[in-house]
Design a protein that fits this description.
Blueprint: H1 2-11, H2 33-36, H3 50-53, E1 67-85, E2 88-96, E3 101-106, E4 115-138, E5 148-172, E6 177-201, E7 207-233, E8 236-243, E9 247-262, E10 268-278, E11 286-295, E12 298-307, E13 310-316, E14 321-322, E15 329-330, E16 334-338, E17 341-353, E18 356-365, E19 385-396, E20 399-421, E21 426-446
Antiparallel strand pairs: 1-2, 1-3, 1-21, 3-4, 4-5, 5-6, 6-7, 7-8, 7-9, 8-11, 9-10, 11-12, 12-17, 13-16, 14-15, 17-18, 18-19, 19-20, 20-21
């Protein structure tokens, strides 16, 4: 019977890793012109996306306008090659409104030349869903005559959002140097559920059953600061930013697991659910630098940003529990860690005239996933992404209109280590390739 279950599991992959983009820091761009330049504007930001990219630059703006950046829709496509079986892929696509960025300034007389602005943005978001089901008659047991009735299904859903709201203060240190700081409040919400149910009935009436259910949800509120210095020297502009780790304010969550194996040599039953658990979410130091130089009708933008490593921590620190069948002490903690990464960006503008600009960019987005990690918030989100953007900005009436497109893509190969019978260490290793692509359509206004 053990061999029977192993064969069924080779046909039907039973474990998915928790894909998300928590390990990619440059996967979302903000603002109108800044989006076309891939966010490679730390030293050259020219609109109120400076509240995020470099708050020190705002004090140097000759005029501040309300900005509404609407990345109207985005198409996300996920594919797991051989995810359900050899030659059977798992796919998920969605067309959804893309994360928005809105910023505006406060015009108070007592500020003088200083600037005060408010912004709200989506820092991270994931919406992912896989479902598949098989009901078939399969001859997989040589000792059992005829076909076996098999039914199995997988359901996987993950939704997460990290929304930042911030107030920016920016002041001139001189006519060419500005300093600013944005204080952010972050509200993160995560929800995940996965279920795998496999059942097989032999002709003699003997039943084999495998049920594996995992779920968690948590919310967390924290605060952080981003400071920046902007410098303008005729055709050359420079910028430097520092982002602090976050300070947890409040949050809670729940976590559950249920494993049931029957009809094999060793039956298993372990089930646990805990709620009202204090949540914790840590982020790292980050230091960014950038510059831009204009010669003639061309302007070149360069940016780089370093993110420090994050030591392993428990997002949800659950109490140990005892397996109902084996008496073994188990834990259902949700944890996370990240390695240090550096991202790079290149952008270019071509000025046909003062009212019509063509822009393009290429930006890296390296994963902060730690090789061999045992964390379970986003353990295998290790794909390195590349973002390519292009479009145009033009004057329409009194507004600057920006239209463009951003294409992002990446892939990774991972191994599903499927533990069949925990006591004897029986496993099945399956190599699969995960492919990801995204298309964003941008329509933005500066009013």
């Amino acid at each position: 019977m053990k061999q029977f279950l192993k064969v069924l599991l080779v046909i039907f992959i039973i474990q998915f890793k928790l894909f998300s983009q928590d390990n990619n820091y440059w996967n979302i761009q903000y603002g109108t012109r800044s989006t076309l330049l891939g966010g490679a504007v730390i030293g050259s930001v020219s609109d109120l996306s400076a509240t995020f990219y470099n708050p020190g630059a705002i004090a140097l703006f000759p005029d501040i306008k309300f900005i509404l950046s609407a990345q109207v829709y985005q198409l996300d496509n996920y594919t797991i090659k051989d995810g359900a079986a050899e030659g059977v892929d798992l796919e998920y696509s969605s067309i959804i409104p893309s994360p928005n960025f809105v910023a505006f300034d406060f015009d108070f007389d007592f500020l003088g030349d200083d600037r005060l602005a408010f912004s709200i943005l989506t820092r991270q978001t994931t919406n992912l869903e896989f479902r598949t089901r098989i009901i078939d008659s399969i001859d997989v047991i040589s000792t059992s005559p005829g076909l076996e009735n098999f039914a199995g299904g997988i359901n996987y859903e993950k939704n997460s959002n990290d929304i930042w709201g911030g107030v920016t203060y920016s002041t001139k240190l001189s006519n060419t140097i500005g300093f600013g700081v944005t204080g952010y409040i972050s509200y993160r919400s995560n929800k995940f559920t996965s279920s795998t149910i496999l059942q097989a009935l032999q002709s003699n009436g003997e039943l084999a059953s495998f049920t594996d259910i995992k779920n968690y949800r948590f919310n967390n509120c924290r605060a952080l600061l981003k400071t920046g210095i902007g410098m303008v020297f005729n055709s050359l502009t420079l910028g430097l930013t520092v982002t602090t780790p976050s300070l947890n304010i409040f949050g809670d969550g729940s976590a559950g697991t249920h494993l049931f194996v029957s009809g094999v040599d060793t039956n298993q039953f372990s089930s646990n659910y805990q709620e009202e658990i204090k949540s914790l979410f840590n982020s790292s130091w980050a230091v960014g630098a950038g510059s831009a130089y204009r010669f003639g009708k061309v302007k070149i933008h360069l940016s780089a940003e370093w993110y420090d490593a994050i030591e392993k921590f428990n997002v949800l620190d659950t109490a140990p529990y005892t397996s109902q069948s084996s008496g073994e002490t188990l834990t259902n903690d949700l944890n996370h860690e990240a390695k240090s990464v550096v991202n790079f960006g290149f952008g270019a503008d071509y000025f046909l005239d003062d009212d019509l600009i063509l822009s393009a960019s290429v930006v890296s987005d390296y994963s902060a996933s730690v090789d061999g990690t045992t964390t379970n918030l986003s353990p295998y989100s290790s794909w390195d992404l590349l973002h390519i953007a292009g479009g145009t900005s033009f004057k329409f009436l009194k507004s600057l209109v920006t239209v463009g497109i951003v294409y992002s893509f990446g892939s990774q190969t991972f191994i599903n280590n499927i533990n069949i019978i925990p006591e004897d260490g029986s496993t099945i290793d399956r190599t699969s390739e995960f492919q990801y692509s995204q298309i964003k359509v941008l329509l933005g206004f500066e009013l």
